[in-house]
Structure formats: structure tokens, C-alpha cells
């Protein structure tokens, strides 16, 4: 299943349209982002397994950061990038921000609850 595709932006920031895709059929949970609502191909993706989604305390309610939230992600295996990345996103309203946070946290929880292949969960 797919999520909704909604625009997120701040002045001076690049506007992107995003879709939350939950884990299914071996595909990982991701936050896909697009250049426009009509785009068929995602410009990029943030893998959600093991991610954290939160409102940064230092930015909460500050100027153009009023509806910002952060999605952390680990570098993909097999890449030369290492560590954790924090992607800062902004919604148009506080209500939209909390809807995004809720949807992303649900996707993260389902992705993190899955057991990697070859590592059986105890009964």
C-alpha cells in the first residue's frame, strides 16, 4: 500500500511531495520524495527501518520552523556513507505536521518490528 502524496516546504527550501510506503512483500518501509505531484518516479527515498521521527526542541515554534520535524535514517548498507542523517521537513500547518509524524512513526514501528531474513524470532 502507498501513502498520501502531499507537499511540504518552507520559504527558501525545496518543495517536495512525499509518500510513506509501509513494509510489504520484502520491500522496506520508506519515505519517498518527488519533484511534483505528477512525478511518477521518486527523486529519492529515506529508509525508515530504525528511524526516529521527532520535533526538534530547539526549533519548535521558531520563525519559519514552526511546523518542522526531523526523520533520522542510517546510511544504506553497501554505500560509502556512514552514520545517521537527520532530514528536516516542514508541513504547512501544525495539524499536517502531526499527521505526518503519526504516519511516519507507524511505518517506522512496522519496519522495525520485522525480523531480518535468517534471524528467526523466538517463539
TrEMBL record:
The organism's place on the tree of life at top rank: Eukaryota
Residue ranges annotated for the PH domain, each copy included: 1-109
Family annotation (SMART domains): PH
Any Pfam family hit: PH
SUPFAM superfamilies cross-referenced by the UniProt entry: PH domain-like (SSF50729)
UniProt name for this protein: PH domain-containing protein
Organism: Coccolithus braarudii
